[in-house]
Amino acid sequence: MNERINNIISSFNISGPVTLVKQIGEGHIHSTWLVKCSDHGYILQQVNHFVFKDVPGLMENMSRLCNHLEQKIILNNLHWIPLKLVQTDTGENYLRHEDSFWRMFNYIPHQPVSDNCSDPQLVYEAGLAYGMFIHHLSDLPGKPLNETIPRFHDLDFRRNNFLDSLKNGNQERLKTAASEIEESLKGIEAAEELQKLIRNKVLPNRTTHNDTKITNILFDNEDKAICVIDLDTVMPGILHFDFGDSMRTFGNTAAEDEKDTGKIGFNMQAFKHYTKGFMQGVADIITKPERETLALAPFFMTCEQAVRFLTDYLLEDQYYHVKYPDHNLVRTRAQLTLMRRMKENQGEMKKIILK
Ligand code: GN1
Ligand code: MG
Predict the structure, then answer these.
(1) 17 alpha carbon – ligand 1 mean position (Å)
(2) What is the pLDDT along the chain (355 residues), one digit of tens a residue?
(3) Which residue has a Cα nearest atom 4 of ligand 1?
(4) I want to staple 310 with a disulfide (CB 3.0 to 4.6 A). Which of 38, 156, 268, 332 is the partner?
(5) How far apart are CA 28 and CA 322, in angstroms?
(6) How far apart are CA 315 and CA 307, in angstroms?
(7) Which atom number of ligand 1 is nearest to the Cα of residue 233?
(8) Going by CA atoms, what residue is nearest to atom 15 of ligand 1?
């Protein structure tokens, strides 16, 4: 493996001799390495092309996004650090090597944060960064971005896949997950209120990030957000996807795969701080219908995620990396618990958003 990785690294146009290569990352999709040179570094990623089937389309988006955001940073004098694609030595922005696809970015030094981090300043900064991200992409020139994963946050699509897995899934697992299946079906019904608005195109279409966990924001040592990363799923979407997915991750008092569901709660303080930042970031663009329905987003996104984890469990873990056999079921249970906690707080969430 090492020799293969070294060959791949040497196909990119990097400066300086490599001093360290280390596999890193908790991502469920790609495989990632840190490549260090003496005073700077790079991030090397093997793109999962089972998940992202159109790699050229994905990388075309990536390069447009990196360029546009870099322009925004320069024009607005932002304290963000631009994410840049490193070219291959033949001038491409990704490398095809046998049956695999690779890309490289500049490494941006940052402080480590946990995926359910609730530090008020970091959560506020994350809300502001994700809000500003949508704002800055509102004038992305050219055609709409490629849909890198079609119908990614379309709950009708997720429900249909789930219903298929109830027919074709592993028999043993279908039995084990009987109560989670029932609760997920009820969750989908409860999420219908927002899905109906989406289906009827009541909410404006925007360019959204679509995977807004806190670990997709890099922070400097002064607790300032300096970069939004993981741009793979940036594509047309609605504000709710980003707001909701953030609350699904850092509104959770426990980890996404917490086994002890008693530890899972919805953190209203984090909600407050995040909302303050996000609302500031989107202040110039948010519309009344968006604002009035935003409180439905955390439950909606958590329900979608529960259904995705459960579907994958029933289909024997084809999509998400798992660390043990029931990992996707444990993740499902955690999301279902979080959905209950969110429902209890929905009225309060709406009040805070409208304030
Ligand atoms: C995947 O690998 P990561 O953490 O960036 C997934 C997200 C899920 C998330 C759940 C392309 O993201 O949609 O919300 O796992 N990304 C893709 O943790 O499916
Ligand atoms: Mg991601």
Answers:
(1) 33
(2) 588 999 999 999 999 899 999 999 767 889 999 999 999 999 999 999 999 999 999 999 999 999 999 999 999 999 999 999 999 999 999 999 999 999 999 999 999 998 888 899 999 999 999 999 999 999 999 999 999 999 999 999 999 999 999 999 999 999 999 999 999 999 999 999 999 999 999 999 999 999 999 999 999 999 999 999 999 999 999 999 999 999 999 899 999 999 999 999 999 999 999 999 999 999 999 999 999 999 999 999 999 999 999 999 999 999 998 999 999 999 999 999 999 999 999 999 999 999 8
(3) 27
(4) 332
(5) 8
(6) 12
(7) 11
(8) 28
